[in-house]
UniProtKB/TrEMBL annotation:
Source organism superkingdom: Bacteria
Record-linked PANTHER family: BLL4334 PROTEIN (PTHR36439), DUF1697 DOMAIN-CONTAINING PROTEIN (PTHR36439:SF1)
Sequence intervals crossing the membrane: none
Organism: Rhizobium loti (Mesorhizobium loti)
Annotated protein name in UniProt: DUF1697 domain-containing protein
């Protein structure tokens, strides 16, 4: 961390979905400013925030943001905070580079923790359709050839894996990596 701080990305789960739990991105940016963060930028309405923090790591920032968010908006949103290096590794470690050009068919799930071998096997047993997945650390990569909306398997992931997480399509992953790079420059 330099004297300007480090760049992080906060991935919100469960906001602005189906007209529920509405949080305007301008309000979310103000919220981050009020907490003392800088170089704040949001990406699409599903709750992606790139920001710079002078102190703290991903785990402590996650706790701080979740508590402050619930106090301000009155409901809980699971938030996954990751540093820019995590996004760089996520893209570099993509096990499906041949489908990276189809960003709506490739997804990355930021998981709260690395799944156990038993949890991964349980999920693998459910993967019987055209989808395929790979887990690398706290990231689940999903190739859904027919798209996430038509994927029965994608709907089974949270219930079967039982490791909290939030998914982003590859277009969002690349955009957030680019935004984090610009914020870090």
């Amino acid at each position: 961390m330099n004297d300007k701080g480090s760049v992080f990305v906060a991935l919100f789960s469960g906001i602005n979905v189906g007209g529920n739990r509405i949080v305007k991105m301008a309000e979310l940016r103000s919220f981050f400013e009020e907490l003392g963060f800088t170089d704040i930028a949001t990406y699409v309405q599903s709750g992606n925030v790139v920001f710079r923090a002078k102190k703290g790591d991903a785990a402590s920032l996650t706790k701080q943001l979740e508590a402050a968010f619930e106090q301000k908006w009155g409901f809980n949103s699971r938030i996954m905070v990751r540093d820019a290096g995590w996004f760089e590794r996520l893209v570099k470690d993509n096990p499906y580079p041949e489908v990276a050009g189809e960003p709506t068919k490739l997804h990355a799930y930021a998981l709260e923790r690395e799944p156990t071998a038993e949890e991964t096997k349980r999920l693998a047993d459910k993967c019987t359709g055209p989808e395929r997945f790979a887990i690398k650390g706290d990231v689940l990569y999903l190739h859904a050839p027919e798209g996430l909306g038509k994927s029965v398997f994608a709907n089974l992931i949270p219930r079967t894996l039982k490791v909290p997480g939030t998914a982003r399509n590859w277009r969002s992953v690349l955009a957030l990596l680019e935004m984090a790079g610009k914020a870090g420059a």
